[in-house]
Design brief:
With 110 residues, this protein is mostly beta strands. Helices cover 11% and strands 45% of the residues. It has a domain of 70 residues: N-terminal domain of TfIIb (Single Sheet), CATH 2.20.25. It comes from Oceanitalea stevensii.
Length: 110
């Protein structure tokens, strides 16, 4: 007797905050990667199908993406958030009670 079948797997790829097109609320949207695997004797062997779904956590709207669009989104969000480079901070002017020619910190001991 041979036991075989299909099993579904869902992986959370990314969570981002964006404006929902249906409820118009800024809510978290989750991107899921849904895969179906062929299994033989309860051991998953290979992926049969892959699809991507993004859902709104506020109203539950689901939007399906093609495999190409979903893998592009997955690559973009796998890199992590792109933080802008911090702006250089200008030096502070001397305090009103401190002379401009006096050093701000004591000389190192030694």
């Amino acid at each position: 007797m041979i036991i075989f079948g299909l099993k579904g797997y869902a992986d959370l790829v990314a969570t981002l905050t964006m404006l929902c097109p249906r409820c118009h609320n800024p809510a978290a949207h989750r991107l899921h990667k849904l895969r179906r695997k062929f299994s033989l004797f309860f051991v998953p062997l290979f992926v049969v199908s892959t699809r991507y779904v993004m859902d709104c956590t506020f109203c539950g709207l689901q939007h399906a993406y093609s495999k190409a669009e979903g893998s592009e989104l997955e690559e973009r969000f796998a890199a992590g958030p792109q933080a802008p480079a911090p702006a250089p901070v200008p030096p502070l002017p001397p305090a009103a009670h401190q002379r401009a020619d006096y050093p701000a910190s004591p000389p190192p001991a030694g």
